[in-house]
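#data-curation
PF: Archiving a pair of folding outputs for the training set. Convention for this channel: one message per protein, sequence first, structure tokens after, nothing in between. First:
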Amino acid sequence: MHLVYISHTLPPVDRPLDSLGGMQRVSMELLGAFKRRADQDPSVLRVTPLVLSVSWRWIHVMVVPFLLWTAIRLWWLVRREGVDAVLCTSMVSASPVVLTQGILRRKGVRSAAISHGLDVTAPVSIYQWWIRRIFAAIDVLLPVSRATGEASIDAGMDAQRVQVISNGVDVDRLGSGVHRLSARASIRTEFGFSPNAHVLVNVGRQVRRKGVAWFVRSVMPRLPEDVVLLVVGEGPEMADIAQAIDERGLNNRVRLAGRVDESMLMRALAGSDVFVMPNIPVAGDMEGFGVVMLEAGLLDLPTVASGIEGILDVITDGVNGLLVAPGDEEGFAEAIRRCLSATALADDRATGGNGTASAAFAPGSIRAHVRSTFSWDAVSGRYLAALRS
């Protein structure tokens, strides 16, 4: 199979942190998985990447010229070199398929696009018009979650041409070389928490749907004083989160870390006790999947999350975390208390104590679940199967 891989969301090669949200990391790691397969057996798979690697600062300037040039390049590849399939990593990245659908169909090239959530639901009329053009041009849509698939069908995609394939995660990127006990001490020292504090962590681009401001206002006051929160990431909700901290007098219990490098991210996850994902419903904005919860799981961190949208495809209740109804203040507080109890027993057992962790969160169980279910080796195989069918 000759696969053309189109993505406008890759970060700069030499400066990955300049543009590395969930979609960007997925695009980069999926391409890496395809390249590994092609290297193992070039007679089975050949990959031609047509990608834009640029920072957030320049992406809106570069994307239209990139998409037009990609359409020309795709036409040339199909005409001159032969192509079997085209995979686009988002709805925007699929725009060249609209411009080349005639030759793709004449040559029998199968085209597919991945949808992530917001790239389908963005409430802009001209964008929604273009999305419908993309739906008509592609052969199959590959949403990253059931919720994203339903949103795509609501937006006009033919349900018969929708096949859900969950995102994956690089199972070797996190977990190696991170010592949990040293990370715990490091995080508490660096952010001024008590050595005995129970640390909750949230990582992501801080937008309203993530629910962090709500969590600070409504859930943190219900938790014991020794339960603290570390918020990693930046975004338009930072001012509201800071205001919520001031309103509830939580300056000693909540820290805003901002953007961090890979080393700090690993320490923040490995050194914390529970990952929290308190999403709230926001019209026109949805959580398509939530790769960061898989990253937390690779460090054996349980997640307490809202049972909403794409989160339902990441968290299996009682296996790698606990699900709570969105907006349920006491439900979140109780689930966090349960997770803290389970992780405390696991830590006691790991350090030679007599505690027995609950079966759901036994040491290594969360990591094993993520590795077996969401590795890119497994997920990339599902993509290739969808492109061949």
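PF: Second:
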Amino acid sequence: EFKANVIARYEFPMGEYNWHLQGGLVYNGDTYSDLKRADREILGKLDSYTIADFSAGVRRKGMGLELFINNAFDERAESLRYANCSYDTCGPNPYHVPLLPRMYGLKFTHEF
């Protein structure tokens, strides 16, 4: 049960523009979603996963434009598993909360 998060960012000027490149990596090891030992037996252990995010952008005079991709390798995993009520009442019907799928986009910012 280990978790790590690392981010690296490189910023550099080019003419009147300030550019940046950024990468992030999140690792989450095998873990349980519940602290109660009885629920652990029913819900089981969540598998480990690794998520990578990347972005590149430019800024000038308070305005910025950034291209990003989150979960770049489209890792399919669960971030959480839980039961709405006890096993005796509801049976073995847990809810599964997946990680967000790959998402990419363009961000525009303006400082006032």
